[in-house]
Write a sequence for this structure.
């Protein structure tokens, strides 16, 4: 997702980032089934039509790839070198998973739920042929916001985003939101598939799986979408805009630095509010003089966690939420005649054209 | 827009209702110009590229056709017999009109602004060949939420929704949001074009133009999107869901009647909040017995205005915000195994499949 295109709150499905481990399966809604089994009182298999005739609830959730901003680790980490675009905000529609589990019944002693996608292939490190599979602790699976989703942005969930059926786990990095979901297993033992214990773990050094810490909830993060890095701004006043989101807790505030992180000014949170969705923010810098600005945005969540200047390095490059510099030149002349902002100033220069 | 498809908060552009007076013009972004003239200090003409390179601000606004629910007037009113689908909620991106007017300067003594769409044709009543044109009082035009919009739901504004450039007037019935906007004229006199004084006026009887009252801000309104009229619900508990919006003021509350309007229960407002956008709501009815339910939803705005059981009749059928009955049968057996709701009940019947 090109972040300069993210000027609004919604990310259109067409622009939403895609990250899959295997080729998307030839998933057809017609023959799709969801199996719920394992430690349940009443295992069952359900056709998609049986699920989707039920009334969807909808919620907004910002999903971020745990490898977002991996490119900013130094030394480089293993994995796709995402910069800042592996994040998006969409409306997801479906049924809370717990409504289905209330029907199957969960046996006492169960601790986890395993989710299997229809996509499969060879795992890069282990060489095994596996499906993409992940598990969740029971409490997270039973959260009312954990959805079996078949709608995205008001339409059928597109195949490239996991349609016909995807698990949505708001607040967690997006590897938890298993696409092409076809099987749910309630378990008494922790699941130890390769996408649970080899990938998506914080490793203090390469291969140190004995000290692996699982990647779970998202970390507070933000980006600047205006001005675009490398652009030229007029002297005087500049409104910096962007988006900010939490994972473990919602965003509580954003600050903007005009000097690379030396000084900070508070931004104003704006736009729609929804529990698991990012917030728009803006911050108007005044009395800018000609020269280079190094802008940074720094979000803080409701528990007081803040984006660091450098995220803790880990071998596979997950969870990087550090602030990122955006360089802008302030020109000597007011060459840009119109600028956005909540309160446009009175005319200071000649006509527009 | 089929209201049963409106299960979420966002209305996808593809499903958003369309109501035009003339054929959409062959509007090309390349050659598009916006002229700002009349009582301004510095008239100008602007190419679309000059406008759209500027950073868009975005806001959510629910737009409703003033003829929505016209079909419920009795006796029938003149005009397209819309039922409930001429309303939708989208994210609009563009520049506040007042930022442009701050640059052109508005001369003292100006009272109105006239907006001209590129579309034209013969006016049905007067027979004149005219463009679609409307005016706004200066104060409304200068409201920071009145936008020159070139984006809808995060993408380029589609031609069928007024692209490349549309005026968006949040809070007003949607005739004010002139599509294919190409000319803005600042005026000292009220504009009296046919879409200002013949159409979009409340007429106590046919032809009574001497007593015409202009259609302006929207009236508080709502609909039920679940359950769908004519469906069968299990006995016991039923969660009724829908959307509600204001015009002059935001929605403050919604009530639901299970008996056609005799008794009312409060609904819970839910989902995202944004100043000019509708709210999702739900209301769980308990201990339903077999038989017919006649559901109605009734929204109330922050100024205490409520939807009436019958809207005041007017000859052209505008501004109907009355409550609408939705008939549902409650069956004798719990044949629907899964139902939505914030707190799913424990299993009461056998397995799902």
């Amino acid at each position: 997702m090109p972040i300069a295109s993210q000027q609004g709150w919604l990310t259109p499905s067409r622009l939403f980032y895609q990250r899959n481990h295997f080729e998307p399966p030839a998933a057809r809604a017609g023959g799709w089934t969801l199996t719920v089994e394992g430690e349940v009182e009443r295992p069952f298999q359900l056709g998609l039509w049986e699920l989707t005739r039920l009334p969807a609830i909808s919620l907004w959730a910002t999903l971020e790839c745990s490898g977002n901003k991996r490119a900013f680790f130094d030394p480089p980490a293993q994995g796709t070198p995402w910069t800042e675009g592996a994040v998006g905000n969409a409306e997801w529609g479906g049924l809370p998973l717990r409504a289905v589990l209330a029907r199957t019944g969960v046996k006492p002693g169960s601790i986890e739920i395993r989710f299997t996608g229809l996509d499969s292939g060879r795992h890069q490190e282990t060489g095994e042929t596996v499906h993409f599979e992940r598990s969740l602790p029971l409490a997270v699976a039973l959260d009312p916001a954990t959805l079996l989703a078949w709608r995205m942005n008001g339409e059928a969930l597109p195949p490239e985003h996991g349609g016909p059926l995807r698990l949505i786990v708001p607040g967690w990095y997006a590897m938890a939101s298993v696409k092409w979901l076809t099987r749910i297993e309630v378990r008494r033992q922790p699941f130890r598939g390769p996408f649970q214990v080899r990938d998506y773990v914080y490793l203090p050094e390469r291969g140190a799986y004995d000290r692996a810490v699982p990647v779970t909830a998202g970390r507070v993060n933000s980006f600047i979408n205006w001005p675009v890095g490398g652009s030229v701004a007029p002297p005087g006043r500049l409104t910096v805009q962007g988006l900010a989101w939490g994972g473990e807790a919602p965003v509580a505030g954003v600050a903007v630095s005009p000097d690379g992180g030396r000084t900070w000014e508070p931004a104003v949170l704006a736009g729609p509010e929804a529990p698991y969705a990012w917030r728009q923010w803006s911050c108007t810098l005044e009395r800018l003089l000609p020269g280079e600005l190094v802008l940074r945005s720094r979000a803080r969540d409701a528990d007081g966690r803040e984006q660091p200047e450098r995220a803790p390095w880990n071998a596979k490059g997950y969870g990087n939420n550090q602030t990122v510099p955006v360089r802008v030149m302030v020109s000597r002349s007011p060459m840009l005649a119109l600028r956005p902002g909540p309160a446009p100033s009175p005319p200071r220069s000649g006509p527009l054209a």
